[in-house]
Design goal:
Blueprint lengths: L1 H26 L19 H4 L6 H14 L19 E2 L3 E4 L2 E11 L9 E11 L5 E3 L4 E4 L5 E2 L14 E3 L4 E10 L7 E4 L8 E4 L2 E3 L1
Parallel strand pairs: 1-11, 3-12
Antiparallel strand pairs: 2-3, 3-4, 4-9, 5-8, 6-7, 6-10, 10-11
Length: 214
């Protein structure tokens, strides 16, 4: 019993000493266990507590809103202007050099009631492109547009089918490619022009093509 009493007494003294050390440290401004220096109300803020920056997607959303607000009614999502100012217009089969690329629009054929869902006509344009420059360029079918007599500009038809579609893709120097693309048009739309407005080039090609019908 005497030995047990001595052990309990020693344990109590050790506990008292530990408590005294902790109280002394707190009085001197030491941080409690698990809290880093400067996380109190009078010190610097920790990264987690003081970071008030928005989520990663917020700046993007803000920029998108600003861009949408600044978009002119006469522009489309691809940033290409619908109103195209030109000093000359090429004719059917003529070649025009646009940023090192020779473009020819060989035909423009109307297919009655062949548009999307059979509710519109389908205008099929056939083009040739030849790279005379020194660099590879990207040919994108959606860089081609069609305008009518009223100046309305149309993008490619999503439902129109053509026999030899313009595949697009990289066009190497001294190489050529060709093919067709189509547009949905109303029966009363006429006097079309084919517009090529590549995003990587400041110049634009405008071709006035005589419509044929199948």
């Amino acid at each position: 019993m005497g030995a047990r009493k001595q052990i309990l007494t020693a344990c109590l003294w050790v506990l008292v000493l530990v408590m005294a050390v902790v109280l002394t440290a707190c009085d001197e401004g030491a941080s409690p266990p698990g809290v880093s220096q400067g996380s109190g109300s009078s010190g610097g803020t920790s990264p987690a507590a003081g970071n008030t920056s928005p989520a990663a997607g917020a700046p993007t959303a803000t920029l998108v809103s600003a861009v949408q607000k600044d978009i002119d009614p006469n522009t489309i999502a691809t940033r290409m202007p619908l109103k195209v100012e030109v000093t000359s217009i090429i004719k059917q089969g003529e070649g025009a050099t646009i940023c090192g690329i020779i473009i020819r629009v060989n035909s423009l054929t109307r297919l009655p009631a062949k548009g999307t869902g059979g509710r519109k006509d389908l205008m099929v344009a056939s083009v040739e492109l030849e790279n005379k420059g020194q660099k590879q360029v990207a040919i994108i079918p959606f860089d081609f547009y069609l305008s009518d007599a009223a100046g309305k500009v149309m993008q490619l038809s999503y439902g129109g089918e053509v026999k030899t579609p313009l595949a697009g893709g990289p066009l190497d120097p001294m190489k050529s490619m060709g093919g067709e693309f189509a547009y949905d048009v109303a029966a009363d739309q006429k006097d079309f022009k084919v517009l090529w407005m590549p995003g990587w080039c400041a110049d634009k090609a405008v071709a006035a093509v005589q419509e044929t019908q199948q």
